[in-house]
Structure formats: structure tokens, C-alpha cells
Amino acid sequence: MLKTVLDPGIDAFVAAYRGYLKVFAESRAAPVLSRGRPVKLSGFELALRVESVTAAAEDVVALTLAGPEGERLPAWTPGAHLDVFLPSGKQRQYSLCGSPADHHRYRIAVRLIRDGGGGSREIHERVAAGDVLTVRGPRNAFPLVPERSYLFVAGGIGITPLLPMVRHAQLSGARWKLVYFGRSRRALPFLGELARFGDKVVVRTDDEHGVPDLAATLAMAEPGAAVYFCGPPPLLEGAKEILRTLNPAARLYSERFSPPPVRGGVPFSIRLARSGREVEVGAEESALAALRRAMPGIAYSCQQGFCGTCKVAVLSGEVDHRDATLPPAERAHAMLPCLSRATGTLELDL
Questions:
Q1: Could you give phi then psi for residue 186, rounded to 5 degrees?
Q2: What CA–CA distance (Å, rounded) separates 69 from 66?
Q3: How much is the pLDDT for 22?
Q4: What's 25's DSSP letter?
Q5: What is the 3-state secondary structure (H, E, C) of 36-65?
Q6: Whole-prediction pTM value?
């Protein structure tokens, strides 16, 4: 039987963890006591067989991946993702949305983005059961922290990293609620799996309820709760502001599936050393977006500064590094154009 309250041992662990955050993550001494470490780009690299491709919702397919011989796969925790290498050579990140207790299969889900970079179209149109895909991982840049209470907020395909989290919260005995937004129920994957949790799951679709009411949603969080958010950037930005006023003791953890907006950007130029071309970067666009106009085949993936796929050598110029991935030893001669910018003109080895 599932516990409905946290036992004293778990409660003490949560209190100790929050004490750690106060000292090592939020105090003035945090930069010294807990130095930032870049996300590791290395990890398990596996050739996995596509066991099945099934429709999970309108324009969403779920892929189950397994070892060629049914072997045990590397363990993972809620919030983890895989780097998936597609037949064309494109690399994309997809959250694991199956069960961490299943050591022989991974599951990911992919929404078709018709005007995107082509990765989702390739999976929907070219990948079939029996194919073999190379993956790297699992890696976790969105871990579930231990708390007494959670509010999970998912927008559409943003349910994928949160689905294993709500299962874990249920098993741990924590108090939790999930609010699931989308255009319509037809567009929301995994509603059937979530139905078992009853009124802990609240579904709000545009066609039934109108635009999302973020203030009412965030008001569901208990004081000091951990709020996990995965969805469109506009909703995320609004959630930050509302939660800061409504529940300042709560902690917001988020993951997005699109590039973050450029903040405090100024125009600059990029010189492509191999062709001599000049590329102008606007104040509100990323260097990667500008490079993609000039070089449609340039490699990229997450567009959020953690996968490292778009890394490029810098021959001259001053880089405004805005990522947490590149190690210090590489920052003098490399950059991630998905996030980082420049003052003046940069010359890149492209």
C-alpha cells in the first residue's frame, strides 16, 4: 500500500537537503563552497533497436527502445533524457517518459513540429519498428529534488519529463498535483496513464477552458513546495513572476523544449573564416539562428547550451559566454552560438 505521509526519516532528509541549499547554493559563500561544473558531454553510447512506434496523441508518437539482445540498459532517474542520433545525422534530445524500474526498455515521445528543424519530421516519417538508432545517455539536467510537496505543470509534450516524476512522487508518499495544459485532449499524450491518479491530475485544454490561468494554477502549490514546470517559454516566464509574488518560499524548476529568449542582446557580426562571408546577428536573435541563415546545414540540437552539438572554434574576437557547459580551458578558443554572443566582430572557423 502506498504511504500517504512522509515518515520521519524522509522528512529529516528533506530538511537536511533544504539546509544544504541555503548554505551551498544560496549564500554569499556558494560560489566558493559549490563551484559550478559543466554538464558532461560524454556518457553511454548505445545502438538500440526500435521495438515499437505507436501513436500517443495527435501528432505525437511514442518510441520504445531496447537493446539488440534484450540486455539490461543503463539506469536513469526522473527528468533524464537521451541524445538521439537520427539516420540523417541530426542529433536531438528527448526526455525519458517510461519507468525507471524497467531496466530493459527506454521510452521517448516526439511531437511533430512541421516548421521546425526537421528532426521530429524524420522520426515521424522515417523511423519504424526494427530500425536501430544510436543514443547517448541517459543524462539528467532536470533532476527531481526530494520535497514534501510538489506541483507539476506540463504544457503539451512537456509532460514527458514530468510523467516519471509524478510516479516517483506517488511512490514516495509526497503530496503532489499535476496540471496539464494543451490545445485539446486529442493533443495530450498519456492521458490514459495519468487517469489512475484521479483528481491529483487536473487537465485544462484551450477548447474546453480557454487560455491557461497561471495564477489559479500556481495557487495550488503549498507554501514552500517544489514547482516543476515544462512547457512553452511564454508560460514559463509568466510562472516565474507570479510564483515570486504568490508563493516566495516555493522553488521553481523548469525545462523548456525551445530556445530561451535573448536577454540584453546587442547586434554584432560574425566573419566566416573559410568563405570570408559576414553574418549580422540581431539584438534579439541567437548567433546560431543567424548562422543557420547562412549555413542551413550547421550542426545543432538542444539550442539551450547543454548538449554541445553547435560548438565552434573562435579564431578572433571577444565572446560573451552565456552557457554553463564549456569547460574553462575551452572558453578562450570556442563558443556555443546557441546561447553565447559577442561584442564587436567574431571570426569563427566555419
A1: -65, -25
A2: 8
A3: 54
A4: I
A5: CCCCCCCCCEEEEEEEEEEEEECCEEEEEE
A6: 0.73
Q: Which three cell numbers stand for residue 39?
A: 554538464
Distances (CA, A) of 117 to 24, 239, 259: 39, 27, 12
CA-wise closest residue to 141 among 304, 331, 338: 304
Grid cell at residue 107: 521510452
Question: Of all helices (H) and strands (E), which one includes residue 245?
Answer: helix 233-246
Q: Identify the burial level of 42 via C-beta atoms within 10 angstroms of its C-beta, where 0-12 means exposed, 13-18 middle and 19 or more buried.
A: exposed
* Distance from C-alpha of 264 to C-alpha of 250, rounded to nearest angstrom: 27
Encoded amino acid at 244, one letter: R
Decide if 108 contacts 64 (C-beta within 8 A): no
Q: How far apart are CA 347 and CA 276, in angstroms?
A: 9
Read off the pLDDT of residues 176-229 as tens digits, 9 standing for 90 and up. Answer: 999 999 999 999 999 999 999 999 999 999 999 998 899 999 999 999 999 999
Give the three-class secondary structure for 204.
strand
Sheet holding 45-57, edge to edge: 91-95, 81-85, 132-139, 45-57, 60-66, 105-111
C-alpha cell at position 10: 524522509
Measured between alpha carbons, how far is 244 from 236 in angstroms, rounded to an integer? Answer: 12
Beta pairing class for 201-205 and 268-272 = unpaired
